[in-house]
């Protein structure tokens, strides 16, 4: 899959958002679209990997961690965003309240996650334009203010889904990570990439 | 199949891990220097009591030292990358199996406990208590999908199997093997979601995992997780296994913090359940004090209470616990037997012995047991125990075949049995294999088919 290009890096992406905003669908769409021979058997996964080609020479592999969006599990999020390099915070453009929840996630990430975490805000369900409750301009200005990438997406039609992930990939420190993650056959590098053995010392 | 393989996270093992092969390599004459390094490292490590942080560092340093040495030494120098990977895994497993009684908090002698180890045990105890207190929780209280609640045979089977996989975590010594138990448990859950046509998202997965943790209530959950985080090679804690480990941590911390507001339940039901549970616990506690036996562990009262409470309820649970208590007792005994056996032979550093022992205790609790130990007094005890263990394993294989067949009725018994053999009875991988087989071979709805149309017509 990842034909070794000149630059290759792997990153951990955490997916946050309320239950019904379609965050899993968004990722499934992302994973599905880039593969012609998509197979049903991987649909049932909360952990997925997918690569995007940022440009001719650069491939980024995302390791995508889905989180449970129900209110009662919100305190568990830190276990998932620990060591994440990037996050997609999803809200539903037809539910104004879901943006508030998304804002709370962003705030938490900015306070507690990796300092350098790249955060994208995704307003999903763009296909339900007629039910829209959140104006693009409102979300956009919030995103600008908070320093987030911002996309309105439709997991259903696929609109802007690849753009979202490619946009994130472009913001990631590929060169710094590439030196640590080579696309060599797995697990054989003798000079261990991460000498510290604390929790999840990896960079992906 | 190929595309799938590419897209899925790197599988835990492309080729099944073979511990015995590593031991054979290590026993090779030309690998003598490696064996010597290892021997002196283990002796050195065991000479003192180390704080947890130092343990992690020292073991890690040794591995980083020995891997390049191995790479330059026959027969390791001649191995392909994948084979060498097997050797690295083997080395980690061997070391951790030998140092288990110094590194896994519940296995450490009380006099040698570091404050961090004590903290592990304390948290274990707290979690144990919570698990007891919330043992009445049902799927509906966690908003499980009704497809699971109205559980067809499939749902029950999958949940039973997931519990069984998680319960195995205390059967193994190596961090790698413990992690595989978690991985298998989670894969079985995803297998269930898929078979019941439920979206396989974290929203759906986590509540099921929480329920399974509550129902399984394995001992030393926190210690197990800490041990894996500390001693599993960091680059192996990425990816899918890392995701499941984090999810399990999440499930545990949810249970620790659980209160009325975390559940979907009426006040009345809540009060009733809690009251009943507390009364039951008090009753058991009383019974326990009437039958107190002396126990070595400081938290014996709790664990004893807990194991009894589980035994009481196990009748309704289709788990390994309910299989044959005597078999399980012997499974538990074997580790102490082996420990004493090992202590007698440590001075020999005999790989023949240690390999048989390690394979036995750590991994497939019995398969490669054919004991060829030197004649020792323990042998008489050991052999019958191992025989029973072997029976247990056969029983497990049979049970797994039955479970998988109920989940995948379109597959024949012999196919499933073959898959299990090929996957060395690793349920997670077997479920994966069944799912992809089913996905490629059939368009029919899977779950409602009548069960056991075995190709060869053999009964189970």
UniProtKB/TrEMBL annotation, chain A:
Say where the protein is mainly found.
membrane
Q: Name the residue ranges with Polar residues bias.
A: 193-204
Subcellular localization, as worded in the UniProt entry? Cell membrane
What biological processes does GO assign it? Answer: endosomal vesicle fusion; protein transport
Membrane topology term: Lipid-anchor
**Stored CDD domains:** Rab5_related
One matching Pfam family is: Ras
User: Which keywords are on file for this protein?
Assistant: Cell membrane, GTP-binding, Lipoprotein, Membrane, Nucleotide-binding, Prenylation, Protein transport, Transport
Recorded GO CC terms: early endosome membrane; plasma membrane
Give the family, as the similarity comment puts it.
Answer: Belongs to the small GTPase superfamily. Rab family.
User: Which PANTHER family does the record cross-reference, listed alphabetically?
Assistant: PTHR47978
Q: What is this protein called?
A: GTP-binding protein ypt5
Organism per entry: Tortispora caseinolytica NRRL Y-17796
From TrEMBL, chain B:
Q: Where is this region: Disordered?
A: 285-320, 359-378, 441-460
Q: Which CDD domains does the entry mention?
A: CUE_VPS9_like
Quote the biased-composition stretches of kind Polar residues, using this chain's numbering: 297-320, 359-372
PANTHER family according to UniProt: GTPASE-ACTIVATING PROTEIN AND VPS9 DOMAIN-CONTAINING PROTEIN 1, RAB GDP/GTP EXCHANGE FACTOR
- Domain CUE residues, every copy: 396-439
Could you tell me where the Basic residues compositional bias lies?
Answer: 287-296
Q: Name one GO molecular function term.
A: small GTPase binding
> GO biological process: any one?
protein targeting to vacuole
Q: Which GO terms describe its cellular component?
A: cytosol; early endosome; endocytic vesicle
The entry's protein name is VPS9 domain-containing protein
Q: Which InterPro entries match?
A: CUE (IPR003892), DUF5601 (IPR041545), UBA-like_sf (IPR009060), VPS9 (IPR003123), Vps9-like (IPR045046), Vps9_CUE (IPR041804), VPS9_dom_sf (IPR037191)
User: Which superkingdom heads the taxonomic lineage of this protein's source?
Assistant: Eukaryota
